[in-house]
Design goal:
Strand order of the largest sheet: 1-2-3
Number of domains: 1
Order of helices and strands: HHHEHEEH
Distance between the termini: 11 Å
Strand content: 5-15%
């Protein structure tokens, strides 16, 4: 079972019924086709973001990403770990909750104390952070992961 992206898993968990199968098929095909820079529309912005962190630059290094971000409550003195959301579809609360929870679980050992997980809706220039924990989300995600693995194996 190969490693999949956070986006693929959140797409899967957020989908219902037969759409889950479509997500697994699409992910499997993308992996079989391999990476191609010509298909990677957001490569430049991801590279700029990585370059900013490696060089210790300010956010100005990633020109325009935060243009229009005006919610001062979201701009604080805490470190943030941010997933960039590029899709045109409106970002649903369920996707934010899943993404930020999985980020917190996966990065807890590496993130600095007080680190806030968030999702930046790039098209709308809006940083969204979780508000309340979701009861038993880990149990639900374990079930979804088992569902994913069974579906993946069924396609082999």
């Amino acid at each position: 079972m190969p490693t999949i992206s956070l986006t693929s898993f959140v797409d899967f968990v957020s989908a219902g019924g037969r759409s889950k199968l479509t997500v697994v098929r699409r992910t499997k095909k993308q992996m079989e086709d391999g990476y191609g820079p010509a298909k990677d529309f957001y490569k430049r912005i991801r590279e700029a973001n990585i370059g900013m962190h490696r060089a210790g630059d300010t956010i100005a290094h990633v020109s325009g990403v935060l243009t229009g971000l005006t919610d001062k409550k979201k701009i604080d003195n805490y470190p943030h770990l941010v997933k960039l959301y590029f899709k045109a579809d409106k970002l649903a609360k369920r996707r934010i909750d899943l993404s930020t929870h999985l980020m917190a679980v996966a990065c807890a050992d590496q993130a600095p104390d007080g680190c806030v997980m968030g999702v930046l809706d790039v098209r709308r220039s809006k940083l969204i952070t979780p508000t309340v924990p979701i009861d038993r989300i880990d149990t639900m995600l374990l079930g979804e992961a088992a569902y994913w693995v069974a579906t993946w194996q069924g396609l082999e």
